[in-house]
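Example record

The entry below shows one chain as it appears in the dataset: sequence first, then structure tokens.
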Amino acid sequence: MSTVRISAWGAGLLLLFVIAYFASDWRYWYRYVMMTESNDAPAKTGWYRSLEMIQGDEVLPLVVAIPSNRTISGVALEKAQNYAESLQSFAFLVSHRGVLQLEFYGDGFGPNYVFDSQSMHKGLLGIVFGLAVDNGFITDLDASASIYLSEWADDARRDITVRHLLAMQSGLVSLEFEMKPFNPALGLFINTDVYDLVFSVPTARPPGGEYDFNHINSQVLHWVLTRATGMRYAEFLSKYLWVPIGGNFGAVRLDRPGGTARTMCCFQTTARDWIRVGHLIVNDGLVGETQVLSKEWIAELISGTNLNSHFGFHVWTANRLSTERLISTRPQRKVTLSERYQADDVIFIEGRGGQRLYMLPSKDLVIYRQGMINYSWDDPKIVNTIVDGIYGGIE
């Protein structure tokens, strides 16, 4: 056999090997290509096919104010909308006293459009854990998480409590994200086996000593919740949250069909359903006359710690004294605010690049923004514009 034939044979075998390799995990490579091309990721959800639906029941539609009955000035609403449009927002909604004062959608979007929440799912997860506590599935936040995670029972991770995970103080290694094939942090978002990746992550330092906004904490909480409740994540969320608040549509991403929910990102729902989540918090956990979420958990949810006074259980808080917020103790990363807030009880759920749900209980105010990834989105500017426009002045 000539050298040329041997080389061709070897090249053919190599090609078959490469094809077989990519075909064996085609979902990963498909997701990698689609994620690379999705610069406006929050608006594009159809490319991610492995989903589990959240069963809802939209019993009562949201009430929309007519212009003459608004409780926020048209000037303030227009100013806020103009700012939202300038940063290419797909949806921008403002609700005051349970009534929609403004409902803006960009071209091609509307009330039934399903958006990708990015890391806003983390804030939703903090609420969901309150429902597990309220219903007796989890009784002690300061118990070792290894009660639910036998994989941690025999190593240093057994010292991590459920509270550490919720407060982002676990000490687990934080994976560095790069948009490159085989990057473990990227795999957390698109691979087909989240379990093996997450449970391979060791501790970097003792728990409770440093704050670090770490995706691994949020994903580990999936197994704490599902093992404590004996329910799939979507099933629990539907029964205890989505149906009670009158949610319409929701979906969670799975690593593979029938697999594990990705609880660190990418909850899919409509803008109006995020407003319903906001109403739940500003109304002290009440929906109508039903106490869906306890006041006690809301207090826990928003309570900061000595390590980060503006971060509770996967949600952010701010007040009139806030000038910055801490993202990570090590390395030291902070966001400096453009101005001080005009309220003392700002609660917000954050997603990558300006995806936001703001909740101000004292004002009975909920604000939602979804749009192009843009890190210049200004939190206090948008909140203050709306607060200053509430008729009667700053309450």
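Notes for this example: The CA atoms of residues 146 and 358 lie 34 Å apart. The chain has two domains: 3-37, 43-388.
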